[in-house]
């Protein structure tokens, strides 16, 4: 009877140790998954920051192009007004 009891205790200890190592493995796997998720989130943030920077640069380029287009339109309107006045003067002669 004593041997059976000792064997039972040994079996319980072995099972408990096995569960503890399984729990440790699960904790390590969960930690690795969490670290991977954190790295993925960090990569996504870096990508978003790069996209924001590129969007700002594109906005600046578009603003410059718009300003140049407005200046060209103003110059064209002024040239049209001068041409109109010249035509009016030449038709009066």
Give me some keywords for this one:
93 residues, mainly alpha, 1 helix, 0% strand, rod-shaped
Q: What do these coordinates show?
A:
The chain is 98% helix and 0% strand. It is an all-alpha fold.
Furnish the topology, listing elements before pairings:
Blueprint: H1 2-92
H/I helix tally: 1
Q: What characteristic shape results from the CA principal axes?
A: rod-shaped
Helix content: over 70%
Uncertain runs are none
Structural class determined from secondary elements: mainly alpha
Give the CA-CA distance, first to last residue. Answer: 136 Å
The biggest beta sheet reads:
none
How many beta-strand runs?
0
Overall pLDDT confidence = 85
Strand portion: under 5%
* SSE order: H
Radius of gyration: 40 Å
Query: What oligomeric arrangement do these chains adopt?
Result: single chain
């Amino acid at each position: 009877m004593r041997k059976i009891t000792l064997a039972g205790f040994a079996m319980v200890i072995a099972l408990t140790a096995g569960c503890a190592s399984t729990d440790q493995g699960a904790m390590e796997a969960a930690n690795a998954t969490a670290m991977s998720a954190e790295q993925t989130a960090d990569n996504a943030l870096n990508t978003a920051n790069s996209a924001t920077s590129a969007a700002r640069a594109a906005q600046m380029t578009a603003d410059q192009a718009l300003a140049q287009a407005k200046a060209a339109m103003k110059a064209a309107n002024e040239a049209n007004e001068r041409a109109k006045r010249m035509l009016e003067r030449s038709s009066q002669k």
